[in-house]
Specification:
The chain is mainly alpha-helical. The protein contains 4 helices and no strands.
Length: about 130
């Protein structure tokens, strides 16, 4: 069985998991009424989930589909997660009564741009090509 190499995607993915858990725990505690604090508690789970989902999608490609991860596949993973976030916002807006949250979409796009370019900039070891 292959071992998981600790690259930048894994570092950001694990950071996302721990950040998401911390935010869920902090939501139950009312520390302050500061609007910036409440805003961050609202958008940071999107950043954390985007990073964790990218890591898990990479693992599916590597360990279940037994394919190597290229820059093209990495781009497709990042684009798919942005698309899923958009679909989620539309479904929540149309059927669940919560308004479309542009800030959630913006932070998801920023998170995906970050997790897409960091491995490329650092020449992460899990890519087979850098075309």
């Amino acid at each position: 069985m292959k071992r998981i190499k600790m690259g930048s995607v894994e570092i950001l993915g694990y950071t996302g998991i721990f950040l998401w858990i911390a935010i869920i725990l902090l939501r139950g505690i009312s520390l302050t009424n500061n609007s910036l604090y409440l805003f961050l508690l609202g958008i940071l789970p999107n950043l954390a989930a985007a990073w964790a989902m990218t890591m898990f999608a990479k693992w599916v490609i590597l360990f279940i589909l037994k394919r190597s991860v290229t820059v093209k596949i990495h781009f497709c993973i990042c684009a798919a997660i942005i698309f899923l976030a958009l679909i989620s916002e539309v479904i929540h807006d149309m059927f669940l009564g919560s308004p479309f949250d542009i800030y959630d979409m913006l932070i998801t796009v920023v998170a995906q741009l970050f997790i897409f370019f960091i491995p490329i900039a650092t020449k992460d070891k899990y890519f087979n090509d850098y075309n």
